[in-house]
Amino acid sequence: MKTQDQVTANSTQKRIVLFAISGAVIVIIVAAVFFFAAPARQPAPTVEFTLLDGNKLSLAELRNRPVLVSFWATSCPPCVEEVSDLIALYRELHPRGLEFIAVAMPYDPPSHVLAFSRRYRIPYPIALDVEGKVVRAFDVGPIPAAFLISPEGNVVYRQLGKLDIGKVRRIILRLLDNGKMS
Question: Domain residues for 11?
């Protein structure tokens, strides 16, 4: 039979362990939010995109407009899931000045990307990054990944994983309404 002191000690130990675990979870969540979705506010890389139709487009040509750069692959289920949301976002905000470029990952065969873009009737420009130069310039790891660039040319938001359309839409609207964010 346990004494009252033993019961109190066990209860205290359990509270300390629970407190430590809770603290560790909070630290991990805060670090993940900071790393994966925090505004970066750094200059966007100087890159040139090779579009699906063979034309070239540089980020410098898109200055003075917000630009959403999305990295994706036809074989990536979360990337495919967010296509309809991205199309809706583009159709809503492109007339107001948003530019959008979807960059297919280097391992995605161009023929698959072309077929995918036709099947889903994607209205925004799609870039092929066969050599991986754009992926390296943006330091892309897991996909989907998105980078929002201010009209001044700074990365003001980045997200790894499926894009939070509501959040990025609010940021884009601020950029369009205010003309700047960085």
Answer: 1-38
